[in-house]
């Protein structure tokens, strides 16, 4: 399964396309302006990917700015963790204060829970429940391909912030310990911001995780 990364919007958020055998999903579409939207469209058309759904790791503004656009453009459903629909809904109330005057709200079509599996072509993603940064935060793990789309849980030598509504430091550290650090050390972590890392690297060099 191929992972394609875009970095969108002023928050420098990572949007991912995952695809296999002509089928694909968009994870955390953060595209906001027309140029970002067009970049996403062109990639999908160039690679002849049939987008089947949109997935959100969580509902914070930087990860969902393109939800409504992507739903409309590709005529597909939006799936989010069962405990984070409220986080997504709240974005409409504060988007303009962050400068996103043209934000369009999106409504989830399906909820995801721990252990759910998502088919992409001949591959499968497993849903992991990893709260702490957001109350309903989830991650998507591919054992066969050795990677996790981790959202804002674990970054390269850093972790997600916990000072936003619904955030909790102890809960986040428990998610890292039980959901991320139980994966093989060679597992690649595709984070919501910044570059890729591995589980093994973070065990050794992440200063926050010395507490785990």
From TrEMBL:
SMART domains: Lactamase_B (SM00849)
Cofactor: Zn(2+)
GO MF assignments: hydrolase activity; metal ion binding
Pfam families: Lactamase_B
Superkingdom of origin organism: Bacteria
SUPFAM superfamilies associated with the record: Metallo-hydrolase/oxidoreductase
Gene source species: Roseivirga spongicola
Keywords, comma-separated and alphabetical: Hydrolase, Metal-binding, Zinc
Ranges of residues in domain Metallo-beta-lactamase: 12-193
Name this polypeptide is given: MBL fold metallo-hydrolase
């Amino acid at each position: 399964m191929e992972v394609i990364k875009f970095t969108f919007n002023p928050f420098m958020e990572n949007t991912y396309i995952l695809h296999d055998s002509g089928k694909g999903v968009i994870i955390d579409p953060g595209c906001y302006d027309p140029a970002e939207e067009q970049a996403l469209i062109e990639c999908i058309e160039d690679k002849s990917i049939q987008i089947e759904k949109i997935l959100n790791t969580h509902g914070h503004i930087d990860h969902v700015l393109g939800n409504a656009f992507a739903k409309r453009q590709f005529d597909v459903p939006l799936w989010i963790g069962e405990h984070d629909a409220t986080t997504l809904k709240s974005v409409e109330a504060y988007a303009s204060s962050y400068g996103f005057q043209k934000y369009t709200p999106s409504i989830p079509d399906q909820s995801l829970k721990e252990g759910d599996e998502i088919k992409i072509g001949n591959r499968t993603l497993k849903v992991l429940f990893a709260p702490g940064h957001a109350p309903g935060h989830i991650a998507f793990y591919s054992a066969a391909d050795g990677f996790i789309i981790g959202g804002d849980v674990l970054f390269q030598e850093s972790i997600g912030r916990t000072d936003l509504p619904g955030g909790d430091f102890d809960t986040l550290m428990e998610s890292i310990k039980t959901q991320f650090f139980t994966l093989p050390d060679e597992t690649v972590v595709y984070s919501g911001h910044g570059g890729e890392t591995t589980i093994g690297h973070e065990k050794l060099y992440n200063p926050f995780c010395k507490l785990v």
